[in-house]
Amino acid sequence: MSHLLRPLSTFKSVYNLKRDQYQYTLAGIILDSELALLEKYGTRVRTLVYSPEPDVDPSVYLQLVQRTNKPFFPRLRNLCITGYGPEVALLVSSSLLRVHAMPQPYTGRENHPIMWSFFDSVVQQAPDMQYLHIGFRVPKRRLDCISKLENLRHLGLSQDLLGGLKTRLDSTFFAKLAHMEHLSSVDFNGLVNSRNELRRSAFGDFCSLTKLTITSTLQQVVPLLQSGSFCALESFTLAFTEAYKSPREISLDFEETSWHAFFQALRQNTGQRFKELNLGCDMTYSRYGTDKYPYALPAMSDMPAPIYPDLLKLNLTKVNIAYAAFWSLSPAHMRGFIKAWPDIEELHIFTPSVGTIDFHALIEVAEHLPHLRSLLFSLQTENMPEPDSVPFLSHHLVSLDVWTSPVVKPAHLNIAIGLFKLFPTIRYLQHDTRGRYSSLWRRVGTIIPFLKEAARNQNTISGRDGDQPTSGAHFHSGLRVH
Q1: Where are the alpha helices (DSSP H) in 6-78?
Q2: Does the first or last residue of the chain, that is N or C, have fewer Cβ atoms within 10 Å of its Cβ?
Q3: In this structure, are residues 318 and 349 in contact, taking their beta carbons and an 8 Å threshold?
Q4: Cβ 331 vs Cβ 324: under 8 Å
Q5: Pairwise CA distance, residues 430 & 419, whole Å
Q6: Is the dihedral of CA 169, 173, 177, 178 positive or negative?
Q7: Is 183 within 8 Å of 152 (Cβ atoms)?
Q8: Residue 297 has what pLDDT?
Q9: What is the pLDDT of residues 175-207, one digit of tens each?
């Protein structure tokens, strides 16, 4: 924001002995004419990203707050806040539609009075707000006021995952959310419920909620799902905050009971529109579990065996499991997925270990899952079938991620030919880029486009359209790689 203040004649850079740095400050009172000029510039701003400015003394903004009695950016629609400061009071406008306030970095403070005041102002002064995501703890009595935002479409509450106090959400709060007729997306990061209170209460139907994302423990989530009705829900994502624990730290009997209750609540309290389930973590970071993102690919035990049938009872078209629900996959697992989800469009199953699934599973997928467009799992490539035995199938799979699958020479050549024959429209072949097999998988990815081009040339000569060759014999006589 400091560049907007440059026209002020009293806006000067002065050396601050205490901070041992130069800082901008006001050498006098802001003139009315200069304030009018600032307000003129402010009317032009529609989108603003605010971040802390250590080179500006806070007294500058405090004087601005004291001098003006109207919004500094009266036509502001989109606001992103990444830091604390008294100047946030200048950013509230009745025209706001989207606010994303995630003050960083984490400072260990549990109370944020500046941001609480900002939150109160937004609720009171921005009635047309459609998107609100806040990344700081807000006391319960303030959160209850969110229901005043009658046009809200998305609500995100991110309480710090690294420690500190967290606001417990009770049935009164959820009941107010349930009655917000336009609220279609909710994201609770660091959710803490009043579990016993929720079990004794029912807070009604989330009639408009289509997408629910929660980062918490399984034991925190189950009471919420049991106490409400989610008839419009289409997508549910659960990222586990206990993911860093080892199996020894968790009671498997207790976990099995929680899994049963979890799937039962999803079956009973969702409707026919529920088609997408994501378990584990934010899919953006699920490929690599780093110190920065410790909740990726949790090292948990297998999902208890009796729970596997509960998962298959859900009628799903998109499944992403980054939580280590399966240590590895077998052909029986894949047959179960195929039978349970014949209309599946996206199937991503991350496993810590490569199981016994081989290339024949891909043939079954191509034969029985016609709507599948994106697939992720690890497979064995030791017993690759000969290319001539792989059928030509016009399956429209677009993306295949083989994760940590092993591959050796010269099997990678047969894999490339086999993948092309099964999935002639495949565009993305992904893999663990840091793994020992990454170079060979990259070669597979570079061979497939050559096979596509050769097939197109063959069909051009024969007067046909498309990438698929006319016959297996003709195809391999021209394209077999030695």
Answers
A1: 32-42, 58-67
A2: C
A3: no
A4: no
A5: 13
A6: positive
A7: yes
A8: 41
A9: 889 999 999 999 998 777 766 666 656 777 898
